[in-house]
Amino acid sequence: MWFEGINGRSGLGRITRGGDGNQALNDRLLDAEREAGFHERDMSAFERERIDLEHRVTRMEAELEALRQRRLEAYARWWNARDDRDRALHVCRRLRRRVERMRRRNCDEDD
Q1: DSSP state string for 40-61
Q2: Maximum Cα–Cα distance for the chain, whole Å?
Q3: Phi and psi torsions of 81, nearest 5°
Q4: Are residues 75 and 83 in contact, defined by beta-carbon separation less than 8 angstroms?
Q5: For 104, which DSSP code?
Q6: Three-class SS of residue 81?
Q7: Residue 24 backbone dihedrals phi, psi, to 5 degrees
Q8: Residue 24 to residue 92: CA distance in whole angstroms
Q9: Measured between alpha carbons, how far is 74 from 61 in angstroms, rounded to an integer?
Q10: Side-chain-side CA neighbours of residue 48 (13 Å)
Q11: What is the pTM of this model?
Q12: Cα–Cα distance for residue pair 89/95, rounded to 1 Å
């Protein structure tokens, strides 16, 4: 476990009899505080990165929503143009039939 050796009886930081127990504990405390400081700096950097990424994700989600809206609008324009084309083609067919009927009538009358 990460906390083994804190009580001074086990682990790498064991205090031996006759040694300066206070100095060893102070050294271990300084090492632990230094390590905590390193982790604190790492956490700050990670938090800045997380916040930056969160802002980027928010911007990209907004852009994605705008693109989805544009896609729907483009499809609606395409659909309307298709309907207009189909209507125009229908009118063309009707007019061609009318023209053909008139030509046949004119040809029959000429005979």
Answers
A1: HHHHHHHHHHHHHHHHHHHHHH
A2: 138
A3: -65, -40
A4: no
A5: H
A6: helix
A7: -65, -40
A8: 99
A9: 20
A10: 5
A11: 0.55
A12: 10
Site of tokens 């009318």 = 98
Give 17-20's long-range contacts (Cβ < 8 A, gap of 24+).
Answer: none
pLDDT of amino acid 110: 74
Residues with Cβ < 8 Å from 1, sequence gap 6 or more? none
Per-residue pLDDT of the chain (111 residues; tens, 9 = 90+): 556 555 555 555 554 555 678 999 999 999 999 999 999 999 999 999 999 999 999 999 999 999 999 999 999 999 999 999 999 999 999 999 999 999 999 988 776
The residues near 45 (Cβ < 8 Å, ≥ 6 apart) are none
What the block records as the tokens of 79 is 């659909």
DSSP assignment string, 6-41: TTSSSSTTPPPTTS-HHHHHHHHHHHHHHHHHHHHH
Tokens 């505080």 -> residue: 33
